[in-house]
Amino acid sequence: MPLDAADRPKTSFKQVGTRPLRPDGIDKVTGRARFGADANAPGMLIGKILRSPHAHARIRKIDASKALALPGVKAVVTKDDFAPRDDDLADVLVNVMARDKALYHGHAVAAVAATSVQVARKALALIAVDYEVLPHVTDVDEAMKPNAPVIRDGLITKGVDPALTKASNVAERYEFGHGDVKAGFAQAEVVVEREFKTEATHQGYIEPHACLANVGSDGTGELWVCTQGHYMVRDNCARLLGMDLSKLRVTASEIGGGFGGKTTVFIEPVALALSRKAGRPVKLVMTRDEVFLATGPTSSTSMMVKIGAKKDGTIAAAEALFKYQGGAFPGSPAQFGAMTAFACYDLKNVKVIAYDVLCNRPKQAAYRAPGAPMAAFAVESVMAELGAKLGLDPIDFRRRNAAKQGTKAVYGPTFGPIGFVETLDAVKNHPNYKKPLSKNQGRGIASGFWFNFGGQTCVSLNIGTDGTVNLALGTPDIGGSRASMAMMAAEELGIPYDQVRAVVTDTSSLGYNDVTDGSRVTFAAGAATIHAARDAVRKLCARAARTWGIPEDAVVWENGHAKPAGANAGNHKPLSLKEISGSAGSTGGPIAGHHEFNAENAGPSFATHVVDVEVDPETGRTTVLRYLIAQDAGKAVHPSYVEGQFQGGAAQGVGWALNEEYVYGKDGRLQNAGFLDYRIPVASDMPMIDTIILEVPNPGHPYGVRGVGETSIVPPLAAVANAVSDAVGVRLSSVPYSPPKVLKALNGRMKAAAE
Which residues have a Cβ under 8 Å from the Cβ of 531 and sit 6 or more positions away? Predict the structure, then answer.
């Protein structure tokens, strides 16, 4: 049942909506904050992982005898140190440590623990691996061909009727939609159909994966790790190593970025296995090239989108075909791409088919609205071209077909209150949209959608005898959530923000919490915080009633005080939270609030972006001149953080659109594993990004909150692509729109014009 289903979200606030300083800011900028690689332990060993130099190879034999004989080497682990599995963690295990085959360049095949980094590196060089190199495939279209090398023996495509019997690289087929697409296209007077491709990109977090593992002689273990979900790490590691959950305590460090890339395990089970074998703590930190080689980038894709409209601008039908590769494992975000592709529009006839495809690449991981930016790139590019053919303003065209309350989404549900139309109106009325453009400049518009998630959440709120509050959370803070949670707790309790301290506890201190992803924390942990505070308020009122000797229902809580109310209240002076907590020992003991639930009704989010660019006709280089974002936040708890999420998503999207891509050679090896050759935007590449926060309350949250962290990366690829196309008069079919690619298109256009 939704939270507060019978009540409208609260609309009047004192703390929520303000902009207090973040509690971790000073420690992070002064270097005092402890990140994953800052953890140390007495007697600690250094772990290193040996990785496959081949894209696809059978592992005939691993001989670690010379490495084990090297002085200072205390342990070596291979697949033999992990029991095989046939359950939901089978693919996680295979990715953590290769078994019969190495499935991609960089796949882990062995690991060592030694007394120093130098010894560990020497030991890796002494491990002899006998490989049988196999044919490989790294392109999603090539992987689907009948003659493609099969990456995972026995993989039968799901979602196909009748069921297939022959193994292939297609893990699953998805289909969504409603209406009669064929009949809809028959009514269309203008139709645009195009094909698109996107390359894999990395989240680009500045902190590599790092952990410190310690398994004692009694089988209990501790793990310190930078992660977006330490409960997930505990559960996966304990199961992979055959440990009871209660025997493994995991503590999340401060995190130097994740964006979805730290929502699974890569090195943590290896560090634990090494520690268990060596009998000493083991620290394992990835190098930057390892991060690119062996952690999860987003998918590369191949897509087709077709949209038909009547001359008045009403979309008559739309269809799409998406192919997403998830690396050498099932689980690409093909389903999410299909579900989000047309979610911005009210379509009567729509059909989307998507394929989850395997390639000889690292296992795909989430990257901020996984799957949605690619789908939006294709759909919004076609929308731009179709609108131009119809002679319609791009905002007006989208508004005419905009999803609103009551719209049936392509993936099934009917939308409740949403703010998509509001985003369109906001950008159209903004000065950026009316600013004149000069020669070689162009303007692009694109919209985007993300579901937002809820999930399992548990929060405890403990009130000290001095009236200050400790808020215990189980969701790692990757975007300022501790401040937002403290603000919501302070709002409910009626006390100042600085009297609440929010901390992320270890896995032994709270019930299970899902990973910090899916834009879920401010929504789910925020709702849990609100209800934990309300639980504490009920207890505070009960203590006041006991003090006054009146019924509990004759006490109300206002502005941080218990006050008598009603016919049975009597004439008593209000008691502050500090006064009640100060006498807690004599009125019943400690006062705490608690709440746990599986959050639902997270509330979908919509955004519209407008970007102006200038393209140098001599070099093909694109400069972003202006960037505008309008997005529905439901309720902005901390507006500065909301704006930061908007701007961060846009910056990452600009990098994806203009520069970023994984480059694989013919040998299947990654060519640009590092920030020198994989270029992310820097400050000088970006203009000031203007933001408009819209607030259409989400009825499923006590304060109306919607998640904001992911929607902001959905429109940028298409917005930039549309702007470049507007500037140069030619449309490219793939991102990134790198200078050589744009220049080639410009030269091709000029050559065609000359002929």
Answer: 3, 593, 595, 597, 702
